[in-house]
Specification:
This protein has a domain of 180 residues: Spore Coat Polysaccharide Biosynthesis Protein SpsA, Chain A (Alpha-Beta Complex). The chain contains 9 helices and 12 strands. The strands form 3 sheets. The protein has a 7-stranded mixed sheet. Helix 4 crosses helix 6. The chain starts with 6 loop residues before the first helix and ends in a 16-residue tail after the last helix. The structure holds 2-acetamido-2-deoxy-beta-D-glucopyranose (NAG) (6 copies). The site of one 2-acetamido-2-deoxy-beta-D-glucopyranose (NAG) has 4 residues, from loops. Pfam families: Galactosyl_T (PF01762).
Length: 323
């Protein structure tokens, strides 16, 4: 500032400072406009309908950006109350997936608690995760637990608040799966995007060599139905009178006897059993995968998760180093 002593210099300094500040202001306002329109664009990109201003996603941490025209899917994992470690693990598996354009709720499903410690531990889990459904039944695999699951949902999810904005149906699709299946949620959602939302029965066709979804039934590794079929299961006499037997086959019997599932989708070979031990139901791990089943031990899980690069997005940090 040595030369700023002359008035001439001072005036030109003030003048140029003024213009510089003016320039900054203009720049800032342009950016603000840009940022604003970016926000607006982001918003409208997420919500195509005017009524979806406020997405009701606040209660669903697994779907932060979902809007009301997203596909809504409930995945019920049938498991047992004492399977604490398995639930912990599956929460990691599904909690680290962020499907796009869908709200996917993963819930653990079991029957009445039977032990004192469960009443504390499961209640704590619910307080922390709120992802558990306890049905009114006694634990069983092939004596109607699946029926109780599907038939309880309409009442459990019915919205009694007359002013509520909860959409109908609460879910477009409901799935039943097991705790040894691994679903890749984005691939699942993409496979559903073009499918009907009524009278749909989706899964891996049994018998294994068959590719015809209208013969026999979908494997218990994970099958999915549209909401109207959930309501039909609740109301129809057909399932009620036929509860016992392998749950997936029994389910297929209901659908056949009730002449339901005019829309079907065979997700084979995007769904398959883990490659080893090889059978007619297995497939090599491959990129076009929706689900892998029979992950019966940690080694099989690790191989699968590694194959699908699930930890590739781990953010770098000074706090840890994973080779
Ligand atoms: C959505 O939000 C915009 C501005 O935030 C508002 O003008 C419009 O009325 C809202 N629509 C609904 C359905 O709430
Ligand atoms: C959207 O949310 C805002 C604030 O959270 C609320 O004032 C407004 O009434 C809501 N609009 C609708 C359509 O629910
Ligand atoms: C939600 O949107 C934000 C900003 O647009 C993005 O950073 C974030 O990854 C999105 N989250 C999900 C779950 O898609
Ligand atoms: C399950 O528990 C509920 C509430 O504790 C009870 O009313 C019901 O009878 C039980 N059901 C069975 C099948 O044990
Ligand atoms: C529904 O809204 C009306 C009018 O806003 C109100 O009088 C009524 O109490 C509300 N009902 C419930 C169950 O909140
Ligand atoms: C996993 O990452 C490797 C290396 O980047 C890549 O070659 C492979 O195709 C990826 N696998 C899948 C299933 O995306």
């Amino acid at each position: 500032m040595k030369s700023a002593s002359s008035p001439e210099h001072r005036r030109s300094f003030i003048l140029s400072s003024f213009f510089f500040i003016l320039f900054l202001c203009v720049l800032a306002s342009i950016n603000e406009v840009r940022f604003d329109s970016l926000l607006k664009f982001g918003h409208s990109a997420l919500s195509n309908t005017p009524s979806s201003n406020n997405s009701s996603s606040e209660n669903h941490p697994s779907s932060v950006n979902s809007s009301s025209d997203d596909i809504r899917i409930l995945i019920g994992i049938l498991t047992l109350p004492d399977q604490y470690n398995r639930r912990h693990f599956l929460r990691l598996i599904y909690g680290t997936q962020t499907p796009v354009g869908a709200r996917v709720d993963v819930k653990f499903v079991f029957c009445n608690l039977t032990k004192e410690d469960q009443k504390v531990l499961v209640a704590l889990e619910i307080m922390r995760y709120d992802d558990i459904i306890i049905l009114d039944c006694k634990e069983n695999m092939n004596k109607g637990k699946t029926y109780t699951y599907f038939s309880s949902l309409p009442e459990m999810l019915r919205d009694t608040d007359e002013n509520s904005t909860t959409p109908y149906p609460p879910y477009h699709y409901v799935m039943k799966t097991d705790d040894d299946s691994y679903f890749r949620l984005n691939n699942l959602v993409e496979s559903l995007r073009e499918l009907p939302r009524e009278d749909l029965y989706y899964g891996y066709v049994i018998p294994c060599p068959s590719m015809d979804p209208f013969v026999h039934y979908m494997s218990g590794m994970g099958y999915l139905i549209s909401w109207d079929l959930v309501e039909w299961i609740r109301e129809s006499e057909i399932p009620k009178n036929h509860l016992e037997g392998p749950e997936d086959k029994t389910f297929g019997d209901w659908i056949r006897e009730g002449h339901r599932g005019k829309n079907r989708f065979n997700a084979k070979w995007s769904m398959y059993n883990f490659p080893e031990p090889a059978t007619g139901c297995t497939h090599e791990l491959w990129p076009d995968t929706i689900a892998v089943h029979l992950l019966k031990n940690q080694e099989k899980w690790i191989r699968t998760l590694k194959y699908f690069n699930v930890t590739d997005n781990l953010k770098p940090s000074k706090l840890y180093h994973i080779p």
